[in-house]
Amino acid sequence: MTAEGRFPDEPVICFMKQLQDKVAIITGGSRGIGKVTAQTFLEAGAGVSVWDIDREGGELALKEWLAQGFEVDFQLLNTAEKGSVEAAAQAVADRFGRIDILVNNAGITRDSSTKNMTEAQWQSVIDVNLSGVFHCTKAVYPFMAARGWGRILNASSVVALYGNFGQANYVAAKAGLIGLTKVWAREFGPKGITLNAVAPGFIQTDMINTIPAEYLNDLLTKTPLRRMGQPQDVANAYLFLASEQAAFITGITLSVDGGLVV
Ligand code: NAI
Prior knowledge:
single chain, seven-stranded parallel β-sheet, 9 helices, 46% helix
């Protein structure tokens, strides 16, 4: 496994150019799952705009991708701010001429038992993980509808399916995304836009650094495939769902969790 959580000699090659001439927005693409997804989409031939609140990470990633000759840009923004998101969508359409794919990947955790959870902890997670997805989706919809083609992918989570101690805010938002995915599949389907969610299990990124080792070990023993997920595992699911091959799939939540919730 490489430092960035990719499989070194695997399977991106066979997916290459699956997104030729498509333009994708990936929120939270400065690091973790979003960054590997951006790299995967770029290698598959897409133009990519990364939207992230992390200037340093975003600019560093942008430099790496430009050095590889990719068609890519970085918009510094907070997905919870409607105005910034709308301006960024217009900027992407101006620069790339179209918007085909949105991966609503940006997300945060502010964990605490419900008993101790502050309103600020509750609200900040709802603002980013739920309202942010609403703003980004609304901002790109007119561009997709105008061309009669679109793919919108939402980052849900395994914990939306089975709940988790200390994550009332996060689970409420991630379960909300499963419902929203179904609503938008119905609303946007007639315009040629598919909507799907991905529910990753525990994936090796900065986000899970705060989880105690013994809890993670326990999860491993409950995972039939007996390993942690890698960002590339999730990026591969996004790539498939964003591609032409997934044209008749909409409204689903695809688990990428090594069988944790089987
Ligand atoms: P991460 O913490 O490594 O990266 C998240 C990215 O989102 C960062 O680049 C961050 O700067 C950006 N971001 C955060 N708030 C933002 C905002 N308001 N506006 C713009 N950008 C913002 O997270 P990771 O692990 O890569 O997770 C990506 C997504 O997958 C998240 O939605 C997360 O909830 C979800 N997920 C992750 C799992 C895991 O085990 N790592 C499991 C299940 C779901």
